[in-house]
Fold:
Amino acid sequence: MKLPKGGAFLLLCAGVSSTVLANGGPVDFSNTVGSGNVIYRSYRGGELVSENLLITPGFKYVDVEATYILHDTGGGTRTGYAFPVDLALSASAGMDHSILVDEEVPRFEITLDGRLLEYQIRQGFNTDTFLNSYGSEQNFHRLFFTTTFEIQPSDTVELVVSYSVKARFSDFETTKNYFPGFENRYFRYLLDPAGYWGDGTVEQLEIRFDFSELIANGGRTVSLPEGGRWIEETQYVISRNHFNMASAAPLEVSYDVSIWGNSRNLLGQSDDPEECTVTASSYLSSSGNSTYSPDNLIDRDLSRAWAEDVPGYGGEWIELQMDRPMTVGFVGIICGYTKSQSVYTSNGRPRTVTVEIYGEDDVYTETVILEDIPWVEVEKGILSPLVQPIYNSGTGIITDRVRLHFDDAYPGDTCEDLCVSELFVAGWRWE
Structure:
């Protein structure tokens, strides 16, 4: 078993807490209250010709690349800019800020016409507050990534700021569930500080949200800025001409990663074929290239399944025997033969299942009635929408043996074979 357990100013708020709750607590979160893009010293002798902003939301981090075309209309200038990172005081007090920055902003780079610029991190203090995950106000501490650059008279330059920063979230575990819950990620980007440059307008503005990775992993958008359009299934774009940045409303987006996170956990923390053995009361003989043995239950291949080999439904079982004991917190299955829609509906799918977890002193038994989930085609590795929990606990049971009894089934259209595509058993070992 594998076991566990300027442009614009960007504000990425985080629900931050160091308090562990009585029935659980935070397992992953962001210390970042806010972070920012380039903030220019006010300079009216120039213009912001264009800004192209690419925002790529990920599971924990948001990748940002902002490309600015700046033109000097005066006598040239040496200007300074800063990228702020705001950390919750309760989270950052007494800690090395460089460690926090490495975690919250693991990648940061600024170039001017392709030349990498050096920057420094300076400490500041902000008396403003933000709302944490509990709905109460909390102060934050501000750090700045700072540097300077020169623009010669009448020059046009390209400034690129690229970085990764943690989104706002707080994922929690409880005693009721083995896997943690995944809070929606939140991202906020303030455009109005770009008004420091020139007359506060930009001739051409394009903001592109690239949701390719999110959607490929089963995620979805929850809320988006208004005024944009989908140009592809994964690309949301906002375009403006001669746009007043000084009075621009913030960009805000939130997105759901629960399927992504649950699938990662299922694949990363469940049974390893080298450390367990799966047996069954019966199984169909091979037919051509198709096999139906219980080994198919832990191969993570939805084109193969275990199929029983007795008339009718009910009375069959599968069992997982581990090489050594562990604390089992989750048992779940993918019902049916999920190779294709026709194969899925042709064969039987478990309805009533009784789990037996053989503990040190007794046997834990629970009977559950499963849903008859319609067949859906899923991307490889995105299994969680199909997995139905049979046992789920944040405390678990010490065992080396788990058995599932199939008491009845949702009948297949043409076959009486009861099928299960995958079995998941996850837990902890204390080495």
Remarks:
- Residues 1-27 have pLDDT under 50 and may be disordered.
